Amino acid sequence: MQRRSFFQRIFAAGAALVSPRWARAQRLEQPMRALARVVLPGTLGEARIDQVAADFVVWIRDYRPGAEISSGYGHPRTQVTGPDPSKNYAPQLAALGSPVRREAVEQALADSKVDRIPPRPDGRHVASDLLAFFFSSGEGEDLLYNAEIRRDDCRGLANSGKRPAKVV
CA-to-CA distance for 36 and 8, rounded, in angstroms? Predict the structure, then answer.
């Protein structure tokens, strides 16, 4: 067991030298989970909240500035992603303290002048970016509208005229 953890540490340190973005994302995993438990709806359940936090860390790790993004229907202009929004996440998470409390998050959002959830993570604050990541997802939309919209799934033509079912 000790040999395995030794090699895991050696690999992580080597990977940090080769890929600082991966190392930064790995360091964010635990604090991000604590933040997610404060800001995401409790109705998701602890396991799903932890999964959303882990998915956000993967999104941070895989983010590529300048990558082409979908322009959307009716907008033929090519768009690209902006600069990496996660540059300040580590100090922002550290400033929230441990354990993360709702009051600290509210104060940090006020200090960052965040008054609404952005359409996509923009780097102003890690808490608002986590909310943007979740609520811009299909699952987040379903929760907001209390309906199984399943934006990213094809429902087919047979039931296209039916209203989405309520979320149970």
Answer: 26
Q: What is the pTM of this model?
A: 0.78
At 60 the pLDDT is 95
- Residues facing residue 80 across a β-bridge: 68
- From residue 112, alpha-carbon distances to 3, 80, 116, 138, 165 in Å are 44, 25, 11, 27, 38
| pLDDT of amino acid 156 | 73
- Centre a 10 Å sphere on the Cβ of residue 121 and count the other Cβ atoms it contains: 25
Measured in whole angstroms, the distance separating CA 120 from the mean position of its chain's CA atoms is 9
Domain map (residue ranges) of the chain: 2-59+89-145
Q: Quick one: pLDDT at residue 30?
A: 94
How far is residue 49's CA from residue 40's CA, in Å, rounded to a whole number? 7
